[in-house]
Amino acid sequence: MATIAFETAASRVSASLMLKSGFSRCKSPFAVLLSSSSAGLTSSAPSSLSAAPAAASSVSGLRSVATGRSSPCLRPRHCSWGLKVSDPSSSSSEGGGGGRRRGLMSAAAMSMEVEQMDPVQQRLMFDDECILVDEQDNVVGHDSKYNCHLMEKIEKDNLLHRAFSVFLFNSKNELLLQKRSATKVTFPQVWTNTCCSHPLYRDSELIKENNLGVRNAAQRKLFDELGIEAKDAPVDDFTCLGRILYKAASDGKWGEHELDYLLFMKRDVAVKPNPDEVSDVQYVTKEQLQELVKKAKAGEGGVKLSPWFQLVVENFLYDWWKKLEEGTLVESADMKTIHRL
């Protein structure tokens, strides 16, 4: 047993939980692979992730929408069990038929998946409502995270949802990477950029002006996944550089079909990973990332990269990284083009 401490809006609480296999108990494959590098990696994971304090208190009494059981909430601040996100279909945040919900799943399929999923990921699959868009990024409706990541729905109904990818650099121009948790439904245990998620179908994350809705969502998820406080990741510090449209299968059942906003930020931040989302974090230099990419392409050491991260690395990242170092990053921004990769 180990104790993971989380921040809530009012106080710090501790949740006692059994760490999933492979989480932070042994030296990460990333560190092993790059240990010969002349420049050492700087890990942002707090020591409590591998050697937690003995004392623990449980948090209970919150009701899971997906299971109907009273279960502990292990997610920081934005726990929405039993809460209903307001439907903004009648608001003026962004048009395009936003009130239409697509593709209700069958009861049999839902039951099967609920039994198989980790409880936290299960809840997110059914609670989160993604923003459906067309290939020009116009909002056309909303649907559950579950449906949006079913390859059957992606192929049959061409479900495309809005997403974002954050690339966070420190003052030394090192990029923060995360390794996705083993309990993630799509692309578990793969290395990727700092934070990858999707804005939800709610007023604050549908705001089109200056891409504020996406930036609000990115700030929310930096806290959810990495414990980065909102004050340390102000929305005005995100630089929106571009958009990509891609499709990728995770396995035979799950995958991604996203119109992905690419966001850069340069800040020194305190990182406290949420083990339900993240199993490891590392800051890397360009040279260390290049070595990691080589290992992943060669299939060495079990290292894998997320498909969206690979696409950004291959098409944009190193040029943008250079512009970041030069202080001319904003010159690279192009939010008019949607790159189909």
Topology:
Elements: E1 2-7, E2 12-17, H1 29-33, E3 62-63, E4 70-71, H2 107-116, H3 119-127, E5 129-133, E6 139-144, H4 145-148, H5 151-157, E7 161-169, E8 175-180, E9 191-192, E10 195-197, H6 212-226, E11 239-249, E12 255-266, E13 278-284, H7 286-298, H8 307-326, E14 338-340
Parallel strand pairs: 7-12, 11-14
Antiparallel strand pairs: 1-2, 3-4, 5-6, 7-10, 8-9, 8-13, 11-12
Region (Disordered): 84-103
Function: Catalyzes the 1,3-allylic rearrangement of the homoallylic substrate isopentenyl (IPP) to its highly electrophilic allylic isomer, dimethylallyl diphosphate (DMAPP).
Protein name: isopentenyl-diphosphate Delta-isomerase
The CATH level-2 architecture is identified as Alpha-Beta Complex
C-alpha end-to-end distance: 43 Å
Number of strands: 14
Please state how the strands of the largest beta sheet are arranged side by side.
10-7-12-11-14
Please state the CA-atom Rg, rounded to the nearest Å. 19 Å
CATH class membership: Alpha Beta
Summarize the structure.
By secondary structure, this protein is α+β, with helices and mostly antiparallel strands.
